[in-house]
Design brief:
Aminoglycoside_PTrfase; 10 strands; four-stranded antiparallel sheet; Kinase-like_dom_sf; Aminoglycoside 3'-phosphotransferase, Chain: A, domain 2; 244 residues; alpha+beta; Phosphorylase Kinase, domain 1; Phosphotransferase
Length: 244
């Protein structure tokens, strides 16, 4: 199905313009019943989208700012791979102080989601120490030496408690800030993992020190290399992961 499925949200909905976003989805601003919103169309399965929308509803109930899914005319939170979400006003982080606020927001996300079930079909970084595949990651497609480096980096996080991680918080386009609010958007890569994967931030905004900082930065670089393999960005990230 294509964008014609926006009709599930009623007759008064239209696409306005394409938005820059992740590589996995087609994202547009839309006008729905006279109000601006954001529509995302991708290939995620229903169970995957149910996990994401249920997570956002949980966070909203806890007072954590998130873009909220807008139901279809018959009450569904997604239809035919499309999710329509509220439009969030604000701008990206620009300073060290901004990124420190982002770090605080991420830590609150992790606090609110300890013990959350894994996203259907996904694997955590520490699962991939032994597993070969998980959603967009296929370690079989990477050179053996690269896999060994990634697994060595993830093994440093083994045994730690897990929570929901946003999955791509270092991209300023995924963060919308005002003077009194930090909102994480684009939850398409969110899953359950070791929280430190989210905390390898610009300016070391999370304040990680020594071994903890090194382990987080190595694990995060390995994760992004595996997720994006094998474009130029992935190759660059892999270069940051030390050889075993």
């Amino acid at each position: 199905m294509g964008w014609e499925s926006l009709g599930h949200w009623g007759p008064d909905v239209e696409r306005i313009e394409a938005l820059t976003g992740g590589s996995s989805n087609d994202v547009w601003s839309v006008r729905l019943n006279g109000l601006k919103a954001v529509a995302r169309r991708g290939t995620r399965r229903d169970a995957d989208l149910a996990w994401e929308t249920e997570l956002l509803a949980h966070l909203d109930r806890q007072g954590f700012p998130v873009p909220m899914p807008i139901p279809t005319a018959d009450g569904r939170l997604f239809a035919d791979g499309i999710v329509v979400m509220s439009f969030i006003e604000g701008g990206p982080p620009c300073s060290e102080a901004d990124w420190q606020r982002v770090a605080q927001t991420l830590r609150e996300l992790h606090r609110l989601t300890g013990g959350w079930p894994q996203r259907p079909g996904w694997r955590s970084s520490t699962d991939l120490i032994t597993a070969d595949t998980g959603t967009r990651i296929d370690l079989n497609a990477m050179p053996e030496e690269a896999v060994a480096r990634c697994r060595h980096a993830w093994a440093r996080l083994a045994g730690r408690e897990t929570a929901v991680v946003h999955g791509n918080p270092t991209n300023p386009a995924n963060i919308i800030m005002t003077a009194d609010r930090v909102t994480l958007i684009d939850w398409d890569e969110a899953h359950v993992d070791v929280p430190d994967l989210d905390l390898a931030l610009p300016f070391n905004a999370a304040g990680l020190m020594g071994e903890a900082r090194d382990a987080a930065e190595q694990a995060a670089a390995a994760w992004e290399a595996a997720v994006c393999w094998k474009d130029d960005y992935a190759i660059g990230r892999l270069a940051e992961v030390r050889a075993v």
